[in-house]
Amino acid sequence: xxxxxxxxxxxxxxxxxxxxxxxxxxxxxxxxxxxxxxxxxxxxxxxxxxxxxxxxxxxxxxxxxxxxxxxxxxxxxxxxxxxxxxxxxxxxxxxxxxxxxxxxxxxxxxxxxxxxxxxxxxxxxxxxxxxxxxxxxxxxxxxxxxxxxxxxxxxxxxxxxxxxxxxxxxxxxxxxxxxxxxxxxxxxxxxxxxxxxxxxxxxxxxxxxxxxxxxxxxxxxxxxxxxxxxxxxxxxxxxxxxxxxxxxxxxxxxxxxxxxxxxxxxxxxxxxxxx
Amino acid sequence: xxxxxxxxxxxxxxxxxxxxxxxxxxxxxxxxxxxxxxxxxxxxxxxxxxxxxxxxxxxxxxxxxxxxxxxxxxxxxxxxxxxxxxxxxxxxxxxxxxxxxxxxxxxxxxxxxxxxxxxxxxxxxxxxxxxxxxxxxxxxxxxxxxxxxxxxxxxxxxxxxxxxxxxxxxxxxxxxxxxxxxxxxxxxxxxxxxxxxxxxxxxxxxxxxxxxxxxxxxx
Lengths: 275, 219
Fold this sequence. Notes:
The complex is a heterodimer of chains A (about 280) and B (about 220).
Chain A: H1 2-23, E1 26-30, E2 39-40, E3 46-47, H2 49-61, E4 65-69, H3 75-80, E5 86-87, H4 95-98, E6 102-103, E7 112-117, E8 130-132, H5 138-151, E9 155-159, H6 163-169, E10 177-181, H7 184-193, E11 198-202, H8 203-213, E12 217-225, E13 236-237, H9 242-257, H10 260-269
Chain B: H1 4-37, H2 42-57, H3 60-72, H4 75-78, H5 83-86, H6 89-114, H7 118-126, H8 131-161, H9 173-184, H10 187-216
Helix pairs in contact in B: 1-2, 1-6, 1-9, 1-10, 2-6, 3-6, 6-8, 7-8, 8-10, 9-10
């Protein structure tokens, strides 16, 4: 009996300590499956651009942080349900998401791109290197037409609930057969297996996969930015949490001024993706 | 909540299609393996036992992942004619579900066959009826009747199991619910509606089986 009493007391104390220790920490949610933005190393530790940036921003804010993992498709609900206080998961700032949550200023920007396997008929499309979909110019409109013709009836794979899915669903490139996956890893697997004719994601996500897997994945068509692709990647925060929003904005300002963001970005992306 | 309802109902059709096709193929697989299990030949018997052991002993999610993502990784497999079928997530899901439910069904039917009172078969034999006719006209009908309650449970389990189809890109009830949540960010409402639809399907299946049990059961 005595042992049980001691044991349960110990358990209670541990529980209490854990709760009180985490009370004033900022909890940051990330996916851990979207390299080089955020991913996990072989031992399961979270790594990547945003993980390192999160630690840096926490130092600027003078706060202690915990980084927690969350599946992508439940990211925004989990933030709203207070599972954590901020999202740093390669989440682009879009008008649609801003209806549900607030965003800090952008800290990095990514371009999206289509990827295919080498030898695909979709390789070498006659399009400009990059198009901006915010007030698209004539060249961008022509590129969208080229894409519409090329992608007609093709299966294009994307991660679910991403800007990439929104873009394909928007009808800007006509009726494509959109297939959605829970993680980018699964998109990559099915692109390599040939189930997908093409895939759409951040260009860096594909180059990272090609490099690590050795699979002949190549980018094709223009890179996309603006419009459905949002205005850079920012920290997602609950709408009523203005105090934290201000703290993050201030920290991002300082980190940018000190060159910290561009240093971390260059380390993980191989180029300066900061903004 | 209300606006998501028609979309979820549309997805229910996909779920029902997956369920009915899986049960259809699963019943054949189950019957075949139940008969193999009753075979006196040790090798055939062990083979059938191994099948049901493996598929009942591993999670359905693992099975569907191995069939969908696993087989797709093998380059040689992709060059065979089988790839035409396995390329489609829809058929991968049905194959995984049918093999899984087939394993359970084979066990349900095997035990049903084994509980048939020898008297029934002896009665048939004493009337000079051939073994084949005894099997089709006496053993199979009794076995089906015996296994109805357990099989009803299996149908309900399989119905819920089809929700795993969403993990291989299929837009079934769970898949569409998740999609709606990803655009509305309202998990509770949408999952309650989806859960309600699953519950309603269970209600229908449960009562149909009960009706059949009453109709064909011993009085």
